[in-house]
Specification:
- The structure holds 2 protein chains of 2 kinds.
- Chain A is 68% helix and 3% strand.
- By secondary structure, chain A is mainly alpha-helical.
- Chain A has a single domain, classed as ABC transporter involved in vitamin B12 uptake, BtuC, CATH 1.10.3470.
- Chain A has a two-stranded antiparallel sheet. In chain A, strands 2-3 form a two-stranded antiparallel ribbon.
- Chain A is globular, with a radius of gyration of 22 Å.
- In chain A, 53% of the residues are buried.
- Chain B starts with a helix and ends in a 5-residue tail after the last helix.
- A 6-stranded parallel sheet of chain B has the order 2-1-3-4-5-11, sandwiched between helices. Chain B has a 6-stranded mixed sheet with strand order 7-6-8-9-10-12, sandwiched between helices.
- By secondary structure, chain B is an alpha/beta fold.
- The chains are: A mainly alpha, B alpha/beta.
Chain lengths: 377, 318
């Protein structure tokens, strides 16, 4: 199933006069061999589905859109990192635990040790990326599967989060961050709502819903969404337009071959683990500043959601193939499906069954589209 | 092969469309309420509330969607409330599992003009501050204190509070109330037991072994009570404890009260927390009437005297 077509080594002896790599492809073929084409088809499918099943429930009103875009953006942040890492041939199962850990790293020093909020945030990023680097170092050094090593970090980090927060604060929810973070630059960097004036104008002119108290139903674009798009663009450009991007594909495709042609495989993999840790910390920072509290159980199971987004987006579990745009579309599918099921009013006992079934359908659909077009079997 | 796969996908999609649309259109004419809880999927206690909601749905002729964060993550719960607000229901019922986290989401619903009733976790003051119409629940501290006073009458001096949901601040208040009712310091007498039955069993065992003068136990619900009951039975140590009380009820706790392993259960009558908010909201939406004060559904104590009736309905309506 995960077999890849490898354009460099044709299975049959070369009989064509023209090298197939130099042959002309139609724009349609070029569009369809992209790893993210299937995910795009999946996005169209879920939007069609929910327009039909939940079109009149407020899902596509301004605050409804904000609701599923928020979930999508959260997942885009960790999904972009997970996609890059997966293309580089590795997994990170510690993303969810890292979210809880980084959140505490921001909240505890600020509230209990009078560390300025900006310093705690920088510290959280530094420590998280150091742990990511350690994960990567252990994996390239021992050549153990990343699945096992990061599964260990999943437990260690979750345990540390609970143990350290009990040790320092005697509680597992640390709240009250708002009074330290009000008006500070870092807080607005992660939780500001952009263009409030514009949205007020939209509400005043009846373009979006206005609340009875005069405020618009959507007060602005949350920084969470800005971060999601910024990370996606950076990830996409690095992957497709730079030498580092080629290194990532090469490391994931065949690490030994890549080493032999001079790709710094170990450095690439370690940096990718640092990148997923960075993404997890961005996720945590946005959440901590939005809610003004950190909790030891934040981010449970998010590592799987990140992997699901990357896989729906066309990344191969074996590495060497995939795209960041695809992972973002995968996040969009997940976000729309997860919130859309709620809008459609599906019974709650069956919620996870629907969620799983819809995701399976999206993946089957997009892989069948991709195979049909690329001629893969 | 490919066409078979594609056909299968389309068929499955058609089935999901079918189910989803029938559920949303069949009751589209009636009032629609959303009930948001903080309980993870694994928490069985909420089944009574779900049953109460089903009864209220039937009795009032309304539709209620029960929602919860599958892993119990309160940040996810805030997203669910925001989603519920966007879907323009006739009313929202929610718990205040964490005031700081849920504050902006609940206030967002109130600002949109959706009537909100808070239930279960949280206090009447918090409910008022959020702009909710009323709070229906059991004041946690007072309930704990009531249990502590009972324990004091039984002569307890050292106790163990088995807390299976330590991330919920209300659970700590229960233990604190018990300590205050008893007139002693809480100190290290509260343990974070987790929710795994084997883990709880062994943590209780370890605590009793290292604190041999413990003569009272308070558990915060079926999750922590059931393994504790099993421990007391296995170790044959019932005579050592002067008072064993649990919050809430299930089949095991009822049985323990009957056979004397447990002295009493604090019943917050969760059925009312599921049933009443739907009844109140329906009347409010239809006729504009709403009681003007909060409702305390507990504490009521279940003992050997009134266990007969309760036992018959435990886990379903009690």
């Amino acid at each position: 199933m995960a077999e890849r077509s490898d354009p460099g080594t044709p299975a049959t002896p070369i009989v064509d006069v023209v090298d197939e790599r130099l042959g002309r492809q139609s724009w349609y073929q070029r569009l369809m061999v992209r790893p993210d084409s299937g995910a795009l088809a999946g996005v169209v499918l879920v939007f069609l589905f929910f327009t039909f099943a939940a079109g009149d429930t407020g899902m596509f009103a301004s605050d409804g859109i904000l609701s599923w875009m928020t979930v999508t953006a959260q997942l885009m942040i960790i999904g972009s990192g997970a996609a890059l890492l997966m293309i580089g041939g590795e997994f990170d199962l510690s993303v969810g635990s890292m979210i809880g850990f980084s959140g505490m790293m921001i909240a505890i020093p600020t509230i209990y040790f009078d560390v300025p909020i900006g310093v705690s945030v920088v510290l959280a990023f530094v420590v998280a990326m150091a742990i990511g680097a350690l994960n990567g170092y252990i994996i390239v050094r021992t050549r153990l599967p990343s699945f096992i090593v990061t599964l260990a970090s999943l437990y260690i980090l979750r345990g540390l989060t609970i143990a350290l927060s009990i040790l320092f604060t005697n509680r597992t929810i640390v709240s009250g961050l708002k009074e330290y973070s009000d008006d500070s630059f870092v807080a607005s960097l992660f939780s500001a709502k952009l263009f409030p004036g514009f949205f007020q104008w939209l509400a005043d002119n009846g373009i979006i819903l206005k609340l009875p108290n005069g405020a618009p139903a959507v007060p602005g674009i949350p920084m969470l969404i800005v971060w999601a798009f910024a990370l996606a663009v950076v990830g996409h450009v690095v992957l497709t337009r730079t030498r580092i991007g080629n290194w990532i594909f090469a490391s994931g495709g065949d690490a030994n071959a890549a080493r032999n042609v001079g790709v710094p495989v170990s450095a690439v993999k370690i940096s990718l683990f640092m990148a997923t840790a960075f993404c997890a910390t961005v996720f945590a920072a946005c959440q901590v500043f939005e809610f003004g509290s950190a909790a030891a159980d934040r981010g449970l199971l998010k590592e799987f959601e990140a992997i699901i987004a990357a896989v729906i987006g066309g990344c191969l579990l074996t590495g060497g193939y995939g795209s960041v745009i695809g992972a973002c579309l995968g996040a969009l599918i997940f976000g729309v499906v997860q919130q859309g099921i709620l809008f459609a009013g599906a019974p709650s006992d069956w919620f996870q069954v629907f969620l799983g079934a819809m995701l399976l359908i999206a993946v089957l659909f997009n892989s069948s589209i991709r195979r049909r077009v690329t001629g893969e079997r | 092969m490919k066409t078979v796969l594609l056909r299968g996908v389309l068929m499955a999609a058609a089935m999901v469309v079918g189910v989803a649309t029938t559920t949303s259109s069949a009751l589209a004419d009636n009032e629609r309420f959303v009930f948001v809880s903080h309980a993870p999927d694994s928490d069985s206690w909420w089944n009574v509330i779900k049953n109460a909601i089903k009864n209220a749905e039937h009795d009032e002729g309304v539709k209620v969607e029960y929602r919860n964060p599958p892993t119990g993550d309160i940040a996810d719960m805030a997203r669910i409330i925001q989603q519920a607000t966007a879907s323009n229901p006739n009313g929202i019922v929610t718990t205040i599992a964490d005031f700081d986290v849920l504050q902006s989401a609940i206030q967002g619903a109130v600002a949109k003009g959706i009537p909100v009733i808070t239930v279960n976790s949280g206090t009447a003051e918090q409910s008022k501050e959020l702009g909710a119409m009323m709070h229906i629940g059991q004041p946690e501290y007072d309930a704990g204190k009531g249990a502590g006073e009972r324990a004091k009458a039984a002569g307890v001096t050292h106790f163990l509070c088995v807390n299976h949901y330590i991330t919920n601040p209300a659970s700590v208040q229960r233990c604190q109330g018990y300590a205050d009712g008893l007139g002693v310091k809480l100190g290290d007498q509260m343990i974070d037991s987790g929710i795994d039955p084997t883990g709880i069993y062994n943590k209780v065992k370890a605590f009793i072994a290292s604190h041999p003068d413990t003569d009272g136990i308070i558990t915060l619900g079926p999750n922590s009570a059931d393994p504790t009951i099993k421990y007391i039975g296995d170790s044959g140590s019932r005579s050592k404890f002067k008072s064993v009380i649990s919050f809430d009820l299930d089949a095991d706790i009822s049985k323990a009260i009957k056979d004397g392993t447990m002295d009493a259960a604090i019943d917050q009558q969760p059925y009312l927390q599921g049933y009443l908010p739907i009844v109140f909201l329906t009347q409010y939406v239809r006729y504009g009437v709403m009681p003007s004060n909060n409702v305390n559904t507990g504490p009521g104590f279940v003992t050997k005297k009134n266990i007969e009736l309760v036992e018959k309905l435990a886990g379903e309506y009690r």
